[in-house]
Amino acid sequence: MKIGCHLSVAQGFFKAGQEAVRIGGNTFQFFTRNPRGGQAKALDYKDLELLKKLMAEHDFGTLFAHGSYTMNLCSDKPEIRQYAKDILKDDIDRVSKIPNSLYVFHPGSHVKQGVKAGILQITEALNDVIEPDNQVSICLEGMSGKGTEIGSTFEELNEIIQGVKYNEKLGVCLDTCHLYSAGYDIVGDLDGVLKHFDEVVGLKRLKAIHLNDSMMPFDSHKDRHEKIGKGTLGLEAIKRIISHPLLKDLPFNLETPNENEGYKDEISLLLD
Ligand code: FE
Ligand code: FE
Ligand code: ZN
Predict the structure, then answer these.
(1) Could you give the residue ranges of the DSSP H alpha helices within the chain?
(2) In total, how many domains does the chain have?
(3) Which H or E run includes 108?
(4) What is the span of the domain harbouring residue 87?
(5) Ligand 1 centre from 188 Cα, in Å?
(6) How far is ligand 2, taken at its centre, from the CA of residue 55, in Å?
(7) How far is the CA of 117 from the centre of ligand 1 (A)?
(8) Per-residue pLDDT tens for 48-85?
(9) pLDDT digits (tens, 9 = 90+) for 133-144
(10) Ligand 1 geometric centre to CA of 106 (Å)
(11) Separation of 39 CA from ligand 3 center, angstroms?
């Protein structure tokens, strides 16, 4: 299987790849820029060449490039929407230059404008940015539904995808913590949830999984990640997720509250 965790690329991409190998992984996730926004560092193509070699040697799966948390395509402030769109465009361009990486971002928070208006702003932004020859797999992350977050239901995710003209490369990244908080019972009825996803969005759109336990109860609409096996999902449910026939070939990345040594332990626990 392809499993890894969120890692820093502050020391470069090759170093992050080496760290992924050291902790027993064969993928990793990184932020495209400082998660609180701002200018991204210029890409170092020598470093990326080394990463590419390492990924081939260690049979890596797809890497996840995660967008900034501050990027809100459906803010009620036009200047924040414009800024988010500029970042999105730049991120897609950057990710296209990083070996075998998909892009994951949070759809946005409508800040009391309403779900309908928010979805419209998100699709408009994606339509402005995604060009017909785009080769980057762009994934909307399924959210927990805290505050005015958009994308906590399969219906909302699908509405965004269907609103985008060149949507061939649009996909979904499901986060196990968010799913459970959003009211999808992946502990008691994983098959039912996957069937529902297939009917609404289509399993062919599912490209990536964030593997997290949750501190919060089912359907709580709260977003607090927990270490694997220590939360409301539990180890057995998480093991069923990674071994499910419809999921097992997807890349999984952990976003649990851990230092890298903790991630190493979790990866070995999950591969056990
Ligand atoms: Fe995320
Ligand atoms: Fe996530
Ligand atoms: Zn989260």
Answers:
(1) 13-22, 45-57, 78-95, 115-129, 154-163, 176-181, 190-200, 235-243, 260-271
(2) 1
(3) strand 108-109
(4) 2-271
(5) 24
(6) 23
(7) 22
(8) 999 999 999 999 999 999 999 899 999 999 999 999 99
(9) 999 999 999 999
(10) 6
(11) 23
